[in-house]
Design a protein that fits this description.
The structure is a homodimer of 77-residue chains.
Chain A (H helix, E strand, L loop, with lengths): L3 E5 L3 H14 L4 E5 L7 H6 L4 E6 L5 E9 H5 L1
Parallel strand pairs in A: 1-2
Antiparallel strand pairs in A: 1-3, 3-4
Organism (chains A, B): Saccharicrinis carchari
Protein name (chains A, B): Thioredoxin family protein
Chain lengths: 77, 77
């Protein structure tokens, strides 16, 4: 896995962070996943250690929680 | 200002995030500032909107709080 994955849920904090991350690391280096719409990806995000969105899972598997938009519990609820 | 600034305080969460950020955006694109040691930089971090470390201030001035190491109040205290 060479791309980072940016998980978000469409919240304003998420959208702002998405723009910053894409500016910083380049659109071609990050897959953007809206787990609010694409709920089938929620278990994978949880498995990667995502507790809140927005979050960036790096190519080496570390999870960086960025600012705070919503907890995963809220997205699931 | 073309570089991002990564503020940290030497905590384990900070060190881990620093490695991830450097891997993602490149060492030449980020200035690393330890505000635990370099306390003169604390006011500038606060002015940039840094509430906790580690945090990354992007070239366009947005502050991304990454995971959570320590609040600025703790670093100052």
């Amino acid at each position: 896995m060479n791309k980072s994955i940016f998980y978000h849920a469409g919240c304003p904090v998420c959208v702002s962070a998405e723009h910053d991350i894409i500016n910083l690391i380049g659109r071609e280096n990050v897959e953007v996943v809206n787990i609010g719409e694409n709920r089938a990806r929620i278990p994978e995000a949880e498995k990667a250690g995502v507790n809140s969105v927005p979050a960036l899972v790096t190519p080496n598997g570390n999870t960086l929680h960025i600012n705070f938009g919503a907890s995963l519990a809220d997205v699931k609820g």
